[in-house]
Design goal:
Layout lengths: L1 E4 L4 H6 L5 E10 L2 H9 L6 H4 L3 E3 L4 E4 L5 E5 L12 H8 L3 E4 L5 H10 L2 E4 L5 H5 L2 E8 L1 H4 L5 E15 L6 H18 L1
Helix pairs in contact: 4-5
């Protein structure tokens, strides 16, 4: 198990390979469709300091506001990452992001972006939102809550020992691509019988 702490250096991100299991500690930022569109089209500076050397999490959290005005995460499961394929490579380059967490993997544009910028794609366990929320130790701040709503807002959070697996690396490795090719080959064999 590799322990990673944000900010993550480019050298560290490039040392990671497909199949590495990591425990992530530090600052991560949740971002989904509206956030990615905004980051590409308007390049806002308010999120820049939080993303430098850090991690974007494709997550639609369930969040409660506590009596003292602070927030806490109730559920924090990964969402399908492929929706961000048109934006992700540009966002990683613009904001110097070193890792993206989600589920389901991403396509060739993001794979090229990982190689170019020195970053990795991390897979989190789907269907385990309430367990993953226990790894969120605090909420630092939130942006665009009113405009985007809770699932789409930028939540800047602290996590401790957040478990992930590297499924796309900066060397062109992709577990998603490998499994797709392997299962396609098996399906073809079965269809020919």
């Amino acid at each position: 198990m590799i322990k990673l702490k944000t900010p993550i250096s480019e050298e560290t991100a490039r040392s990671l390979k497909v199949g590495d299991e990591v425990l992530l500690t530090g600052t991560i930022v949740t971002a989904r469709d509206a956030a990615h569109k905004l980051m590409v089209e308007e390049k806002p500076d308010f999120i820049r300091e939080h993303l430098f050397g850090s991690v974007i999490y494709h997550c639609g959290p369930v969040v409660k506001k506590d009596a003292d005005g602070t927030y806490s995460f109730v559920a924090a499961g990964p969402t399908t990452s492929s929706r961000e394929e048109p934006y992700q490579a540009d966002v990683m380059e613009e904001y110097k992001v070193r890792a993206v967490i989600g589920k389901g993997g991403m396509g060739p544009k993001t794979a090229d972006g990982l190689k170019k910028t020195g970053a990795v794609y991390l897979h989190a366990v789907g269907g385990a939102g309430s367990l993953i929320a226990k790894k969120v130790t605090s909420v630092d701040t939130v942006y665009k809550l009113e405009e985007f709503g809770t699932p789409e807002a930028f939540w800047v959070i602290q996590v401790e020992d957040f478990p992930c697996v590297v499924t796309m690396d900066s060397h062109g490795g992709s577990l998603h691509k490998d499994i797709m090719e392997m299962s396609g080959s098996i399906a073809k064999e079965l269809m020919e019988k």
